[in-house]
Design brief:
Blueprint lengths: L1 E5 L5 E6 L10 H4 L4 H21 L7 E2 L1 H4 L4 H12 L4 E2 L2 H13 L9 E6 L4 E6 L4 E7 L3 H8 L7 H25 L3 E5 L1 H13 L12 E3 H11 L4 H5 L12 H15 L3 E4 L4 H13 L12 H12 L5 H16 L1 H4 L3 H13 L11 H10 L8 H12 L11 H4 L3 H19 L8 E8 L3 E8 L4 H9 L2 H7 L2 E6 L11
Parallel strand pairs: 3-4, 5-8, 8-10, 12-13
Antiparallel strand pairs: 1-2, 5-6, 6-7, 9-10, 11-12
Amino acid sequence: MILARIDEGGAYQIIDRQKDMVKLGASAFQSRRLAPDAFANGIAALRRCRRIIDAHGVDHVLAVATSAVRDADNGLEFLDAVSRQAGINPRMISGTDEAGLIHLAVRDVIDLSTRKGLVIDIGGGSVEILLAGERGAFIAESLRLGVQRLRHAAGESDPLSRDGRRQVTQLIQQQAAAVLQRARQLGIDLVIGTSGTILDLGEAVLRRREHIWSHSPDGTVIDREELRELANQLVEMDADERGRVPSVDARRVDTIHLGALLLVQLLDLAKAESIVLCESSIREGLIVEFLSRAAGKAADEPLHADLRSHSVQALLRRCGQTGPHAERVAALSLQMFDQTQSVHQFGPNERRVLEHAAWLHDIGRLIDFDHHERHAYYLIRHGELRGISDLEVEMIALVARYHRKGVPKPRHAEYSELPPRAKRIVRTLAGILRIAEGLDRGHRQVVSYVRCEITPERMRIRVFASGDADLELWAARRKAALLAAVLDRNVEIDLGDSSVEPASAT
């Protein structure tokens, strides 16, 4: 269960979570009935959810029942008991509906505006496979390959026997080969993995790299061969040994090795070299579906026209830092970026990083003015920015971190871990942002635009203002050293003639 708060702009923020792994369908795939203990444990878990719901004063409760319940002969009996004993009224959904909710959730976190994503969601009873873009799914299939079903196919041997591995492999090939061949023919730009099993496997790989995500797994890329190495080790272990693998949930030790085999085979069939992790799935999809209906959106219409910008603005609102200062700093930053492109040679992706950092550079004031640049780093890293990769979030946070006071240094842990190109991006964009922030030092928006003149030895920034800009010129000059070092040019900042407007001031 997740609890979400929805703001006036239609953005949501997760404020509480509850998870009980009751393995509702563990025996249902053999007997076609929910076992008495699973039935009782499921009711108990949902009653705990109900108490949390009541404590938070929730306005709307959205609940669905998936593979385990819809395939059980006593599934409707279970739902009736949930309604009577827990006060929750789930709706039974089909595999296609399940895939649709996953698509809504993924699209709200990962930018699919120009890409087709192959989404894999591994559950206990089924695996949802969909190939989707921003406007809808080209393929949506629910395969009976959930890890509890694979456990039944694998037999009782632990560690997994050679025959059990062969049985599992054959079952995956039989059910998944055709749909993934069709997906390859339509074109796959990236593969996205959701669900607890995939996230656990992804985190286990990251621990082997000695790197753990610090805000959320969204956008983190895991290589297929890293997963294959992990899978080969897990299948040689028994349950106790698997339970000692870092990041493997103790409640998944009976199936995590099967989930690893399944994921690697699906990636092989898709001919995918890597997978992007996504924490959002069916539960988040329910929230997006609710918000879309409330906004009168069509089913295939994205909730937000620009997912990245909407997410940045939502974080800005949550931190109470809306206003003209951030907007003016962003505008001046982009002017300088565009006019120095021939030197730094960065493109639209880096431009977006700068824009987002400029909007968010002051959000650390929510915590305290002193060191607010460091607080901004923390808030951005943990700000649930959607549609932005993990590396991009890190760069946005670091550019904001270096908008004042200290400059990037090798001894700074977060900066030192960046790839070389990302370090250059952060230094360049932070250098631009420092000057732009200085040009609105008084938060008066007296500087309207700038014009950069570049020679091999010098960069001259002409400042056009609507009033007295002495304070802004002084502040910008004090902050010019970083950009001068990055661009290897002397940076001069002076006042232009505001009576003569440049040809374009964007």
